[in-house]
Amino acid sequence: MDENGAERPSFWTGSNSFFILRDLGRNTEIIFQSSAVSVTMAGQVVDDHVIIEDQSESSQIYNRGWYGTPQSGGSLKLDLIEALYLLETERLIVKTGDSTLGFMDLMRLGNKIDKNFEIRYLVYRDLRSRGYIVKSDGGMADFRVFPRGGSPSKTPSKWWVFALSERSLFDLDAILASLASGKGLRKELLLAIVDEEGDVTYYEIRQASPAGKMRKAKADQAAEGFFTGDRVIVSDPSAAKALHEGQFYGRLLGDKLQLSLIEASYLADSGHLVLRNARTGRPMDAEQLKRHARKTQRDFDLRLKAYEDLRKRGLIVKTGFKYGSHFRAYEGDPNKMHARFLIHAVPDGYIAFWPEISRAIRLAHGVRKEILFCKVGDDDEVEYVKLMRCRP
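and the corresponding structure tokens:
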């Protein structure tokens, strides 16, 4: 009984079935029974597959879960991951010659053939336990996963799934290549990350095209900004007000405007700002400002390219420091709405560790924002990738 005096169901598994039982004193009531396929069903290891020769047994396995690939003559060809899952769930006996293989025997065989076998198996197992039909892809992805109610005979697969260890690297270029291939075939991409405890976390990956509602301002009379070493100050009150209230640049300090070096560089390049050195009073050009900025921020040019592209897209862009990202971006007036995006600018060939990526995604989700990785190519082409944690 439980703490409220109610009868608590108990569980029992036999070699072929799973039961939920209720204790009724002298008697026991079966309140749920799930029968598995008979474990007399046997398959033989052939190279890197398992073959079920018996036509009736092959049909039974295939029709009850779309396992394997039917062969001419009525046999069924299972890959080792499918065979291991059927072995674990007591629906298949696996043999090599006259010897019967246990779970670890087949796992070791899989690991000899594929160094990522264990990770792939844990992802396959998790997806199957969620009720999905899963097939090994054999191409760019690890698995093809069909929508609920779908099957290989009547529906195309919905997802390409990539199985990765938390110790593996986050390779943005590889992800972008997969996105391009998946888009052509109308597939959604899922990254399945297996942690040290064997739990699987799923991330949906999409290309993004962020856009806002702000129009680019015309270059009228340029404001004058004084470079102080770490930022630029616009001292004229009317110019400060125009830049801040019209396009939401910088932060007001009384009737003056404080600009970041990225904002000041962008405004100088677009003709909205002329620069002077606050210490000497001498004029500066935008390139001099950038040279100063690079001394303290090695990725300044990368961030500036991302900032320029976001501004061209009509977004209001502010620092993302408090959120652990390069920028936060608003679709409209920051006084009337929250930032929708957190943006991290990265170069070609960007590689990171998955715990870092997971932390960034979790933080963005916690503050109800979308995390975008903005890749700035060597040719200054900009691409955006959105990562979202999901439950398939």
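(Above: one complete record from the training split.) The chain is about 30% helix and 35% strand.
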